[in-house]
Design goal:
The chain is of the alpha/beta class. It is about 20% helix and about 25% strand. Strand 6 and strand 7 form a beta hairpin. About 15% of the residues are buried.
């Protein structure tokens, strides 16, 4: 792996693991007690070029379930029981422009937690030959660890990271 990629991944992990931000009061320099106006993620919407292939990836590949959709939109809602994702087919899939994470503003990637390294390895083995899936890299330490992750593009090209937070089974990683 390139040194710059390792540095970027390490910096991203540091940001993800940072303590919650506490705004500073302008009057006394002490943290202000400000309650956020939001309460977590309601859902994530991904534009896809091949709705059927992307739905199959989430449902058959990841074990999610379909939770509705709007045929005229056209969209399908999928969930893992915690997170809902709307898969919305691009109006003109044949001419849709692929997202370039280095040059476009938008969702860089979707990061999903996996329970342990064994599950991550099983998922990698299952998806490595999945139709339309392209891996950026298989399971590896994120920076210097302890988080282990992998990144792939699902059949419509959206980047998805699967991460096992540090401290969970480290078998077969050393």
């Amino acid at each position: 792996m390139l040194k710059s990629q390792t540095l970027v991944r390490s910096m991203a992990l540091a940001v993800c693991l940072a303590l919650p931000f506490a705004p500073v009061s302008a009057q006394d320099g002490e943290p202000a007690e400000v309650a956020p106006v939001t309460r977590g993620i309601n859902h994530i919407g991904l534009t896809v070029t091949d709705l059927d292939a992307s739905v199959a990836f989430f449902v058959d590949g990841l074990g999610w379930r379909q939770a509705g959709g709007i045929p005229d939109y056209p969209s399908v809602f999928v969930t893992d029981g915690e997170l809902f994702v709307t898969l919305w087919r691009a109006v003109e899939p044949e001419t849709a422009v692929a997202f370039d994470r280095k040059n476009n503003v938008g969702l860089h990637h979707l990061a999903l937690t996996v329970s342990d390294i064994e599950t991550l390895n099983e998922l990698h083995a299952k998806l490595v030959d999945w139709p339309g899936v392209e891996f950026e890299f298989g399971p590896e330490l994120n920076g210097g660890g302890p988080t282990i992750h992998m990144i792939l593009r699902e059949p419509s090209g959206n980047r998805i990271e699967f991460a096992v937070p540090g401290g969970r089974s480290r078998a077969d990683t050393d």
